Amino acid sequence: MHGIRRVRQTQEERQASKRKELAKIEEFNALTQRILARKKGNDWSDEAFQLTTKLLQINPEFYTLWNYRRNILLKGKFPNSSPEQVHELLEDELSMTMTALKVRPKVYWIWNHRMWCLEHIPKGPASDGEPGADGWKQVVWNKELFVVEKMLDADSRNFQAWNYRRFVLASMPTPRSESSELAYTSKKIEANFSNFSAWHQRSKTLTSLWAQGKLDESKSREAEFELLRNAMYTDPNDQSVWMYHRWLVGTGGGKDVLEREISAIQELLDEQPDSKWCMESIVHYKRLLLNNYAKDVDTQHLTRDCKDLLERLETLDPMRRLRYRELAGEIGPSTS
Amino acid sequence: MASSGISTSSVSATENSDKLLADLHVSYIQKLGQSKDDLAYHLTSHLRLNAIYWGFTALSMLNKPDALDREEMIEFVMSCWDEETGAFGAHPQHDGHLLSTLSAIQILIMQDALDRLDVDRIVKFILSLQQPSGVFAGDAFGETDTRFLYCAVNALSLLGKLDLLDREKVVEYLQRCRNYDGGFGSVAGAESHAAQGFLIMTFSSIVFTCVAALAILDRLDVVDVDTLAWWLAERQLPNGGLNGRPEKLEDVCYSFWVLSAMSILNKVQWLDVEKLSTFILSAQDPEGGGIADRPGDMVDVFHTHFGIAGLSILGYPGLVDLDPVYCMPASIIEKMGLKKGYKNLERKAF
Ligand SMILES: [Zn+2]
């Protein structure tokens, strides 16, 4: 249970609510037994199907009932149906789960059933414009993408919706182009830099575009640094921005890029002298210089800088002081 | 399950205890099986076997494994066997599922009653759930995700049958789940054409399932420990609790997942352990026992278990050692020869 406040009840209050619950318990258990008995008897009738609808409305987490429902569809309903009818049945399932999700948006089993339905849409032509044998499929997947993007419009940081959106994109008969995916993450990130899921999706999309040669890697990397510069100044306290920066630096570029980024972050640090993330990042990139370009850098100077910053971080962020101390220890002695 | 319309007083923060209320938690867990006049009890039957594992593990951490009747527990577990799937359901007459099957295996091992299991059939069930991409589904209908992958790897390891698994495939899948932060996502990137699942869980729990699975497979070398542990350490909020991902509230269950992943990565010291321990203790219900997601909320057996398990990793006095990889008593895992190189804090004296 998450986020439900604890309340104290008197003895009488407790007994009153128990009395009220008793009837509900009896109804729920009786219905459960009726359905499970039918299930045991391999009853694939419409009557049994309706009973699962009723009980799943009360308890959508009863995974056994979702299984039973799918078996009724597969063994009772689909074999006697034309593709049109199967298509219709599954459309009904999609509306039923949508209603259920409005009440219980976090129940895994509802999403699970929805995914199964989407995957079982038969081949067939669409009447509304989508040509070809995958017409029906394309229409439902397009609709699904629309639904999940509406959820993301309402809450752009909804982690589950981002995950579900990835599932939808990967399942569409005609995949969306990755360039339009990149544009989508741009839109979400520009609306709010502090969006871990959007940055994550962006890193995946870029990696793939670069690997396929669909995007000039070094040019595109520079554009990302530009975007990040913006993000750092707008929201310097968001870890996802710094994580993304670290990832980007790690994808390529050499000593020049490291030095340029260090001085850009230093500039921000001069403006915001207590920025923990600036210090953390400068330490990380200076350590990369020390580890990868020891011959071409002033190691003593860099070592001292790192140690100074880590010492400041210990005071600034005492909860993680032992981490900073450990990092300082790894750098080695700074005395000349 | 807040009772609407009933006049009640909210719980004040001053009631919070700074000591573990062990006796209260024992009686809270004992009473759970006797709440049959509670609607919530019946509405959660799909989690019964998991709940018994949570309650029993918590009691074992509290050094009170006998607080629930052994024979009764074993008989209940066996009554959840689903002959059709060859696996355990969460409740008698419920369908077999990987999640409840793992709970059944864990309970029977902790009760030293593994001889009751039809190991061959269970192994067959688990192996049938692996997908071409290496990941696992939860049952024959189900979608795939890394939580199920962890359950499968964990269960096979406990049954001594890990060598029947295509380990390389599993590790490859986990590597493809890696994110730019050194952590893990719930599904591999879009390059895979296999059916992709998605996971309703927040990030730190996914990290835990991936890290623990890799630990069991002896393949922690694929983890970028420094970046991942940095990300995990930043989950700690000023009040000491840990959240699942940036911008979210602290929670006892996420605190456990981050903490156990940190223990497996040998980085518990990167957290403020005193503050974390204080946070977990402040989420106790000082009147009825049990632990909630955060102070002042309704308790449940899930958070009670993760709260006590977290305190055990933190070396809280008097608790039994927990193995963070398997989330079972450390002595049992050690006896089975399955102990990995995790590092909990040393047990403090009272
Ligand atoms: Zn929680």
From TrEMBL, chain A:
Record organism: Crepidotus variabilis
Pfam families cross-referenced by the UniProt entry: PPTA
Function: Catalyzes the transfer of a geranyl-geranyl moiety from geranyl-geranyl pyrophosphate to cysteines occuring in specific C-terminal amino acid sequences.
Assigned keywords, A-Z: Prenyltransferase, Repeat, Transferase
GO annotation (BP), single: prenylation
GO molecular-function terms, A-Z: Rab geranylgeranyltransferase activity
Catalysed reactions listed for this entry: geranylgeranyl diphosphate + L-cysteinyl-[protein] = S-geranylgeranyl-L-cysteinyl-[protein] + diphosphate
Family according to the record: Belongs to the protein prenyltransferase subunit alpha family.
A GO CC term attached to the entry: Rab-protein geranylgeranyltransferase complex
Name listed for the protein in its UniProt record: Geranylgeranyl transferase type-2 subunit alpha
Automatic annotation (TrEMBL), chain B:
GO molecular function: metal ion binding; Rab geranylgeranyltransferase activity
Catalyzed reaction equations: geranylgeranyl diphosphate + L-cysteinyl-[protein] = S-geranylgeranyl-L-cysteinyl-[protein] + diphosphate
Domain of life: Eukaryota
UniProtKB keywords: Metal-binding, Prenyltransferase, Repeat, Transferase, Zinc
EC number in record: 2.5.1.60
Cofactor(s) needed: Zn(2+)
The record's free-text note on cofactor binding: Binds 1 zinc ion per subunit.
Domain Prenyltransferase alpha-alpha toroid: 20-328
A cellular-component GO term for this protein: Rab-protein geranylgeranyltransferase complex
GO biological process, one term: protein localization to membrane
Signal peptide start and end residues: none
Purpose: Catalyzes the transfer of a geranylgeranyl moiety from geranylgeranyl diphosphate to both cysteines of proteins with the C-terminal sequence -XXCC, -XCXC and -CCXX.
Subunit structure: Heterodimer of an alpha and a beta subunit.
Family from the record: Belongs to the protein prenyltransferase subunit beta family.
Protein name: Geranylgeranyl transferase type-2 subunit beta
Origin species: Crepidotus variabilis
